[in-house]
Amino acid sequence: MTRQVAIVGGGLAGLTCAKSLVDAGYRVSIYEGLPFLGGRASTYRDQDGDWIEQGLHLFLGTYSEFKKLMQEIGQFPEEVLFWMSEVRLQDPEGPDAVYGSNPFIAPIKTILGFLGQNDYLGLGDKLSLLPLAAPGLKGMKGLEEYDQMTVHEWWARCGGTQAVLKRFLQPFCRAIQFTEVDEFSAYNFLGWLHHVTYDLPHSLLGGYRGARDELIFAPLGRYLIHHGATIQTGVKLTRIDYDPSSNLVTGFHLDNTRQIQADLYVCALPGWNFAPLIPPPLQSTEFFSRIAKLPTAPAISVQLWFDRRVVDTDDFTLIAHSQLPVYQDQATNAYPTSGGSRISATISPAEQYLSWGDEELVALARDNLSAVEPKIKTARIVKSVVLRHPQHLVKPAPGAMTSRPTQATPVPNLFLAGDWTQQDYFGSQEGAVRSGRACAAAILQSNELNR
Ligand SMILES: Cc1cc2nc3c(=O)[nH]c(=O)nc-3n(C[C@H](O)[C@H](O)[C@H](O)COP(=O)(O)OP(=O)(O)OC[C@H]3O[C@@H](n4cnc5c(N)ncnc54)[C@H](O)[C@@H]3O)c2cc1C
User: Fold this and answer.
1) 0.85 exceeded by pTM
2) Is there a domain that residue 275 lies in?
3) CA-based radius of gyration for the chain
4) Which of 177, 255, 266, 382 makes a 20 to 30 Å CA pair with 363?
5) Are strands 27-32 and 4-8 parallel, antiparallel or unpaired?
6) Cα of 428 to ligand 1 centre, how many Å?
7) pLDDT tens profile 330-348
8) Count of structural domains, the chain
9) Can you tell me which atom of ligand 1 is nearest the CA of 9?
């Protein structure tokens, strides 16, 4: 008999899991709390008809499973994404640099550019980068030993220079996981390096050619419905019913009003949303109690529309010594209809700014941006959107990365998916896709065992 699976959470993890399960012949129902699919990677239209994104999203060329998923739903990566072979780094207190990011596609720009531009990072700084590359060659398992150490501690141990720490490692860590170098697990950082080192030909930065809703989530939703799944948005999981005597989940309560039942249950929610829903008898068990202890990081996304073009490139740019470590002008490739620049930026670390008002955050973003993009000083902001997310990522604090849970739980019919569960790509779109696939694989395996 076909087995029924209830999946709560319509982000990349839950939808990928659903896709693998409908392909394997399961009956799948998806329940999502927001009115639209996509979760933290979602985009939605505001009252003016403009696309708003939950946050600026960069696509690493090494995201192999996400690219495969796109292909499987007929959304070809070359149509969905555009690629940049450069990384821009800026320091409002000093020089800028543009480094090539791919020695295969742009060998001269990458190698000569790196060796030639010595203002941002001097030759001594560049030589101190060598220890940075070495652990990247280890396998991911071998890197776990670095989870007890911060990036700052690891860098000091390597004898790395302050310039690299302040001008490269700090903005990178702030931008990619919203966390400072002295709270950032070296395992997480070296993991990113590992992925790039092992797949150098794909070491490119990608951006989306439009709204992710149109490019990814709507097509994925259509694929699922076409293959027999049902999707309900705007419904929240409020309780998980659990029977201790059988050690099985017996139902999901939605919106405190109705119970749904299935053979298998998947929570594809962020860990911090799942933790308060853990049934009381399970809360003190080792597996589930660790989930409640996972630290979280907030993020603030600021999107600014200007009356004229204020940035000359659509590259992702990292800013050193800045509360706004990353931005991109999306007016050329992502949302080409807008007249002037349309900048998407992230304020990070965001803890101390969560209580600030929109106007103050827009002013903070403008100040930080105009320090590196002087045209902003004379331009007018015609529209702004600020999104505050008090919890938006499992913080890659030392120890946290190795205590993430597996997708199979000690309850045989309850499974987890999400970028915060065990997989090699930490908190990222690729990590979410991989967790969704791993969750479906765990379900298929448990089905085999129960035959
Ligand atoms: C500001 C920001 C910038 C980012 N930038 C990048 C980037 O540049 N590159 C990159 O690769 N990744 C980036 N990420 C990470 C990426 O967005 C996430 O890793 C990925 O989207 C997580 O997918 P998920 O399915 O695991 O979780 P989510 O997308 O969070 O999906 C979980 C879903 O569960 C729903 N939900 C929660 N509670 C309930 C409930 N009780 N009932 C029903 N539904 C519920 C939520 O609404 C959500 O839709 C960024 C994230 C943020 C926040």
Assistant:
1) yes
2) yes
3) 22
4) 177
5) parallel
6) 8
7) 998 899 876 899 999 999 9
8) 3
9) 34
